[in-house]
Amino acid sequence: MIALGGTIGTGLFVGSGQTLARGGPAFILGSYLLVSFMVFCVITAVTEIAAYLPTPGSSMNLFGYRYVSRSLGFTLGWLYFYSLGIIVPYEITAAGLVISYWNSPVNIAVWISIMIIVIVGLNALPVRFYGETEFWFASTKVIMMIGLLMVSFILFWGGGPDHDRLGFRYWKHPGAANTYLASGNTGRFLALLSTLVLSAFPFTFSPELLVVTAGEMKSPRRNLPIAARRYIYRLFFFYIGCVLAISVICPSNDPKITNGGAGAGSSAFVIGIKNAGIPVLDSIINAGIIISAWSSGNSYLYLSSRSLYSLALSGNAPSFFKACTRSGVPYRAVACSSLFCALAYLNVGSSASVVFNWFVNLTNTSGFISWICCGIIYLRFRKACVAQGVTDLPYRSWMQPWGSWVAIVGFTFLCLINGFSVFWPQNWSASSFLTAYIGIPIFVGIYLGHRVYARADPWAYDPWEVDLHTGREEVLAEERPPKHADDGKLWTKVKLIWE
Prior knowledge:
Largest sheet: none
Radius of gyration: 23 Å
Helix content: 55-70%
Oligomer: single chain
Strand content: under 5%
Shape: globular
């Protein structure tokens, strides 16, 4: 449930409204389909790696360190620390967008402070409290998403209070595709590029979250491949279903999502429900989205602090961050990662939607770089398996290795065009340019800096020398055979269909 709920965040609930306004219903649907395909290419690659040797503390920076080079593992570890830390104020900012929907007289700084206290407080508690709260948070998000899809389906057929059948009305007016920065076909092409970039954000770090769970689940060599095969259904049901639903109930030119960077935007779901005249439900959904922001912020702060803690344990960060409480909470790493939360106070002095866009651009770059590295790690892992004759992989996908090449090329392209709009004179902004592209020199700088430190190391390990066996016997010994003896016949059939 945590793995499923972790992929559904405010990027989907709130950010999709801005994406709809940018590209229109046809472009957002097409973009989500394409990005979902590329993300699934990454999913199949990282699952093949993680299912082979799912040791406790599994992460892509660990596999990069083991299968490619020490420098790649070091750089990815720091990338995850600062990128996941930056997503926490993004989630708080998204909650600020939602709260402003009610025209609250309370200063936004008060709400930011409350949310920071809750998120940091949950991470300061023993991990069992994190797991319990995340289970209920994730359950709430999944139930809300299913409910929103049902409401959208009912409104499509005219089941709202005014019995107005929406159908695909908003695909005809204001239109299926918008223009951006220019008119005509050029403007539509630029709108498509911008929509592609914005559409990637709700997926950011979802594949990596699946890898992290591999080190904690029971029988990961069996259950992780099952999770990967189910992932395609989640992508289509929640992500594709979501954007199709908002394209039905919310017009892409609604002023609440086309505010031009002034004021605060809202969830396209909330706007559509409000326009349909359904009382109270919009406020209930807003409350659910705030819970979603709390949940996602809680998860990302946990992952950021654990990334720093892992770096300290491996000698790639100061040993100061190794300190833990009796219950195992790395309190110094949590405190350090919590400092990123202060970035949310930028909302006090600047428009919430402007700050929202800064965080989207900055995190997008890190997500693209991470997925490119995932593809590289897989290709090196596969090459080592072929060289050493390893064939007993618990999961093999027909999409690989060409799927990794698709992901590398596709996300490299998106990384380079992430902030292309700032090069138009009317859009030039030093802050927008930096947030869109500073992630690239930061990553390259950290990597090259470690290369100087580890200059005796090869750029990539020889396939014959890659360690594919340390820890494998322990993993195999802990594997538990599946128990179907107590399963009823109907439940067994359902499981076989689902798997």
